[in-house]
Amino acid sequence: MTQEHKLAASSGQQAEQERPKELPEELLEKRPARAVFLDLDDTLYDHLTPLRDALREVLSLPSDFPYDRAYALFRYYSDLISEQENLSAVPDKEKVAWMQKQRFIRMLADFGINVSEERAGQLQDAYLGRQFAIQPFQGAVELIAELNRQGDLVGLITNGAGPHQIAKIDALKIKTAIPAGRIFVSGVVGIAKPDPGLFGHVNRMTGTRPEESIYIGDSWRNDVAGSLAAGWTCIWFNHRGAEPESELQPHHVAADYDEIRRILLGS
Ligand SMILES: [Mg+2]
After folding, report:
1. Which of 10, 33, 176, 219 is 20 to 30 A from residue 75's alpha carbon, by CA?
2. How many CA atoms lie within 13 A of 141 on its CB side?
3. C-alpha 121 to ligand 1 mean position (Å)
4. Ligand 1 mean position to 226 CA, how many Å?
């Protein structure tokens, strides 16, 4: 039981009195109609490009290598190990460096390619060097601008270490469209997707409600499961034609930004 819960349990009446009053009518009218939050990696930009270039440079893999499949496995092992080691919420530097090599080793092993830890380190360095040569998906910047214009509250929720994720957001040049107060990075908050607590934190910090909040993300495990558990509306951005990973039902599925646009704006 947390300190807060203990207080509430031991003094119900006091907790009742301390509850904030409803916002006055004029402030309620100024509330945004909707909150629309996006994931960063492979939702706002194509995350396959830096991986493919690193694999081609370090291992001289051919152009017809199944990079899509490699990317899916790479992300799978990255998320799996991060979750097992609790690295998204508590990004211990040494453990993260180990995970970053392990995901290359395990992904490549699935293609029958065995690489040493040293070679995995070279791959990670090459991959990292390309992390910031990124561009938003076609239509993403325009959509965010239009949502802002019509009064929606637009933000980002991403798993990872604070400075690293912020450097990518800087590279995408979207900071004028999405102010810092609406960017939530798991390593900074201390809670990671798919924990619905992160989405609840975002609602509290932005004065929004789950029932008026929409989340757009590519990861079934982190984005679909997390946002649904938090009571948000979920748009699964399935631009790589992945299969659902469980019985969960996202509210919408979109394969590109035109479809996301139709879902959010109707045109
Ligand atoms: Mg993602």
Report:
1. 176
2. 11
3. 23
4. 12
Q: What's the gap in Å between 80 CA and the centre of ligand 1?
A: 14
Residue pair 261/147 in contact (Cβ under 8 Å)? The answer is: no
C-alpha R_g of the chain = 20
- Dist. CA 23 → ligand 1 center (Å): 35
Strand arrangement of the beta sheet that strand 183-185 belongs to: 183-185, 153-158, 35-38, 213-217, 233-237, 252-254
Instruction: Spell out the domains of the chain, with CATH numbers in brackets.
Output: 32-45+135-265 (3.40.50.1000), 48-129 (1.10.150)
For residue 180, pLDDT beyond 90? yes
**Phi first, then psi: what are they for 233, rounded to 5°?**
-80, 135
- From CA 51, how far away is CA 142, in angstroms rounded? 26
Q: Could you tell me the distance, in angstroms and rounded to a whole number, from the CA of residue 244 to the centre of ligand 1?
A: 15
